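Quick question, first post here. What does this chain look like in 3D?
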Amino acid sequence: MSGQQRIALFIDGANLYATTKTLGFDIDYKRLLKEFQGRGTLVRAFYYTALVEDQEYSSIRPLIDWLDYNGYRVVTKPTKEFVDSAGRRKVKGNMDIELAIDALELSPYIDHMVLFSGDGDFRSLVEAMQRRGVRVSVVSTVTTQPPMVADELRRQADEFLDLSQLASRIGRDPSDRPQRAGNENGERSRPQQPRNGALESRYGIRQPQDDDFDI
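> Answer (accepted):
Ran it through. Tokens below.
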């Protein structure tokens, strides 16, 4: 790849989490950023996720807070709760529209879009980006049964990168995985906010310092 190409990353957070969970490894987001910074000029790195706002504590909140201070543009919105026709409570938090709008608006300023998702709904977006002269790589996996990437999305992409092949370069050491706390009965306790340097080992990113803030 040319070192002069302008790259943007678009990470479907929920889809990437489900894929890495199936593959059995965790993303080191600091290493992921460095991997693609080494492939060209990284213009933006977007991370999209929906949040359940009425929860007292969200396990993903520490991750998105630190990503926001370490080179990622984090895009969130609250989930919506509804009851389906069978009377079952459902929670919806789709970020496809937000991702698509950001990608199309950025298309004049990038040469290469890297989409971390296997969602087939993005096929039309990939085609639209290609019509604008942007090369599109899709990152997911076909090593699972069933594959985590829709066949139509994989076929539409200019390049398919299997996440299992990237694990050694963007995954974090399993020994860094935090142990789950439990009470004396062996039950899981309420998750706690990571302290001090825990976030660096947990997500592969450093904690923000005082000079990270514009005052």
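The chain is about 30% helix and 20% strand.
The two ends are 39 Å apart (CA to CA).
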